[in-house]
Design a protein that fits this description.
With 614 residues, this protein is an alpha/beta fold. Helices cover 36% and strands 23% of the residues. It binds 5-amino-5-deoxy-1-O-phosphono-D-mannitol (M6R).
């Protein structure tokens, strides 16, 4: 949450910062700001409520010169979205400008202390407290900025990624991190700072990911230096990023979400590459092979995740229990971390996260690791915090996901979970050769079948017009498609703001059936599988109460398709892989309804892509 960008070098900083903010806008977009030290040595700070485009407008006639600057796009935690609460915040001395991502938990205590020293505050943010604290320590002790930052951070409880510059020293930016990501790009005599690598990739592929409690000193003409709170210099690990620019652009699509839905067949192919070997009747996730003894002998697996990743986890449970016969429980990371869970040696925790930065998931991982569990991460963002804090894991390799509503990451997570279950079942001997052969052949065919599923796009676009003004939706599924129903409802809620609920279809008669009337659209996932007859009964129950059924069925369906009001046909596949296809029309429907309603599909209100605060 919140995007941080910074630049120090010989180019004009402003265009680099604005472009960087636009790349990071998916992280938060309720206000934006920039601080630059100009050619004439002024500290210029510009801030707006709203999006980065608004910041561009207000600075059109302003002095945006300078080769050093920091910029921020905000997702409000302390204080409403407003110009005064936007970052950068400037210190009382008028010399320091600071941007910050995270939460300073003890900001109230620090604020009271500073107020007693005569400091006053313009904003309601914790960030302003931080900059005044650094200012106070610097001014009262007559210290240099680095020392003041080091001492201030010792007093701070909470999470932060921060960048600070000093008007008196136009050749230096200091950055620091704790529990909130920060990457430094290293160019030729220039540095780039960002919350993730996306703003950096077009300038350099050499990056350093800061670790917790690292403080980095970026000084013009000098190599990057990183120290700890005691000022001990640390070794740097310079990494090469493998992102390409095309992955960060819309590529002709009106929205990132649509692009990301459409590219799923290729993403799944990338995810399976080098792992699925149909010709040898084998699937290999190397992390499973490397740790097979630990995994085979696990007492149980605990999957922890949030949001869409949690839905993928529910499918993961069925896959692992079905093929490996190991008990699995699936927990919301936010509940797990505060429930004093019974977890320890012999447990394998699987943490699923697209961003790899979700605060609750990261905290749950730390708790489980401290209690002796073995941690396996399933993430998309390479080099992010969760993969770096796990014992082992697998990337989903679906490329950067920019739309706030997660789409390709979900199918990537399900793909990895299926490969995990099958690899483990193979080494455990809990799957027969013939069963493995059948599912691997189907697996290989999934990208082509996804393409067929995407051909429903025009039909769904028309259907979406009919339901644009619905006030509620119900989504029903069973077995492997129950989590898909939850995911379909979440997608619709997130981007169209229509209230939607997902249920296991049989639960309907235990309450939700009371909601069914002529106004209630019910999406029923009723593809050909072992539970088809049960779903047929559910559809009949809805029709008997005049509900409007949109059925997701298999090609050639001649039963439910006759009763449902609308039918979307998908290619057939084996039951455990069905979610990889059934998810697609639900993603498309959420997308088209949101477009019909004129909503901001990629940046829905109140949301941010990466939830780095709890
Ligand atoms: O990055 P993560 O997978 O850890 O994120 C978890 C959720 O915040 C995320 O899936 C969220 O629910 C999405 N906006 C869903 O579309």
């Amino acid at each position: 949450m919140c995007g941080i960008v910074g630049y120090l070098g010989s180019r004009d900083a402003f265009p680099i910062l604005i472009k960087g903010l636009k790349r990071l806008e998916y992280r938060g977009y309720d206000s934006a700001g920039v601080a630059l030290i100009s050619q004439t040595n002024h500290l210029n700070v510009y801030k707006v409520k709203g999006k980065v485009s608004g910041l561009e407008q207000v600075t059109e006639r302003e002095d945006t010169s300078g080769t050093i600057g920091i910029a921020h796009t905000r997702w409000a935690t302390h204080g409403e979205p407003s110009q005064v609460n936007a970052h950068p915040h400037v210190s009382a001395s008028g010399q320091l400008a600071l941007i910050h991502n995270g939460i300073i938990e003890n900001y109230n205590v620090l604020k009271e202390k500073l107020e007693k020293k005569g400091y006053t505050f313009k904003s309601s943010t914790d960030t302003e407290v931080l900059v005044q604290l650094i200012d106070y320590i610097k001014e009262s002790g007559k210290l240099d900025l680095l020392t003041a930052v080091r001492l201030a951070l010792r007093e701070v409880i909470g999470a932060y990624a921060l960048a600070i510059l000093d008007h008196n020293d136009p050749d230096q930016i200091i950055v620091a991190r704790k529990s909130s990501p920060l990457v430094i790009g290293i160019g030729e005599n220039e540095f780039f700072i960002a919350s993730d690598a996306t703003p950096i990739v077009e300038f350099t592929d050499k990056v350093v990911y800061l670790e917790d409690e690292d403080i980095a000193i970026l000084r013009r003409g000098e190599p990057l230096k990183v120290v700890d709170f005691s000022n001990v210099e640390l070794n740097l690990e310079v990494q090469t990023i493998e992102l390409n620019l095309g992955q960060l652009e819309k590529g002709g699509y009106p929205h990132f979400m649509l692009k990301e839905i459409v590219e799923q067949p290729d993403c799944i192919q990338d995810c399976m590459r080098g792992r699925l070997h149909v010709e040898d009747n084998n699937v290999i996730l190397s992390a499973i092979i490397d740790h097979k003894e630990k995994l085979i002998h696990a007492k149980r697996f605990i999957i922890i995740a949030c949001g869409t990743s949690w839905h993928a986890g529910l499918i993961g449970r069925q896959l692992i229990e079905n093929y490996c016969r190991i008990p699995v429980q699936v927990e919301y990371a936010s509940e797990f971390r505060y429930s004093n869970p019974v977890v320890g040696e012999g447990d394998v925790v699987i943490a699923i996260s697209q961003s790899g930065e979700t605060a609750d998931t990261l905290a749950a991982v730390e708790l489980a690791r401290n209690r002796g569990a073995f941690i396996y991460g399933i993430c998309n963002a390479v080099g992010s915090s969760i993969p770096r804090s796990t014992d082992t894991g697998s990337y989903i390799h679906v490329g950067p996901e920019i739309g706030v509503a997660s789409t390709k990451a979900f199918t990537g997570q399900v793909t990895v979970l299926a490969m995990l279950a099958l690899t483990l079942a193979t080494v455990k001997g809990s799957i027969s050769e013939s069963e493995l052969k059948e599912i691997l052949e189907e697996f290989q065919a999934i990208p082509e079948k996804m393409k067929k599923a995407l051909e429903t796009n025009d039909q769904i676009a028309s259907l979406s017009k009919i339901f644009t003004y619905a006030r509620n939706f119900i989504y029903l599924g069973r077995g492997y498609n129950y989590p898909v129903a939850l995911e379909g409802a979440l997608k619709l809620k997130e981007i169209s703001y229509i209230h939607a609920e997902g249920y296991p279809a049989a639960e309907m008669k235990h309450g939700p059936i009371a909601l069914i009337d002529t106004e209630m659209p019910v999406v029923v996932i009723a593809t050909q599988n072992s539970l088809y007859e049960k779903l047929l009964s559910n559809v009949q129950e809805i029709k008997a109460r005049k509900g409007r059924v949109i059925a997701i069925v298999s090609e050639g369906d001649d039963t439910i398709s006759k009763i449902a009001d609308y039918c979307i046909e998908l290619p057939k596949t084996v039951e455990p892989l069905d979610p990889l296809l059934t998810t697609i029309p639900l993603q498309l429907m959420a997308y088209h309804i949101a477009v019909c309603k004129g909503k901001d599909v990629d940046q829905p209100r109140n949301l941010a892509k990466s939830v780095t605060v709890e």
